[in-house]
Amino acid sequence: MLSKSNKEKLAFWVFRILSFFVLAILFWILEFIFIRGWHMLNWEFLTEMPKDGMTKGGIYPAIIGTLCLIAGSMIFAFPIGVLAGIYMHEYTKDSWYKRFIKLMTNNLAGIPSIVFGLFGMALFVNAMDFGDSIIAGSLTLGLLSLPVVIRVTEEAMLAVNDSFRHGSLALGATKLQTVRKVVLPIALPNIITGLILSIGRVSGETAPILFTVAAYFLPKLPESIFDQVMALPYHLYVISTSGTKIEESRDMAYGTALVLVLIVLILNLLANMLRRYYSKKVKMN
Question: Cys-Cys with 50: which of 31, 57, 229, 230 at CB 3.0–4.6 Å?
């Protein structure tokens, strides 16, 4: 029989092995994409318009379109999700009403993305008459990421010690002042985690933008939020399945995949830098 200390060591080693296994899979995927796509990364590929059925030229419109959709979805989802999470934790008492909202939020997070795409097409494209546009795609992706932001905000508010709230209220501050001046600044670094997770999810979605915004071949930049755009996930899907020149399409697909991964990594690094900044600010205060 193993002693308690040996059992603990064994458990730690199991956890370490599983952690390294996850990291190994991640680096394997990144290596696979990088090896096959790095030779496509050049100035022309990143700044030129696509041509010849998207087997030549660059992916500049798809990059701009993807960044527009990410920014638009975050502008919609992040404020609403944060405010909803604050309301759920700070202003709603434990009741059937609160439990029902949490249940619906969890169910919303589990809905397949293609269902969001169909809903976005029915509501934003047809009913609200936005057509296939950036605003329709951004609102659809915003709805897709909204449950993640709400739940992360709730967990971030829960992590703040109640002594901060009690101390603020004891000094005569109102509930709103306590949330805005005391609780929210402390919880903000963890709330930004919701932003990171949301960016990671919406940046690679294909089904929602397929019904609401993505264009098959549109070698120009958008001029307004009501324009249709190309996007990297849909562009990757198209050139992987509909290319007329197999080798050229395959190279373009790996190059596009690598650019999409790099964009997600860069945006996550920027969000993490923002999170560290606010964490240091909270510690200094």
Answer: 57
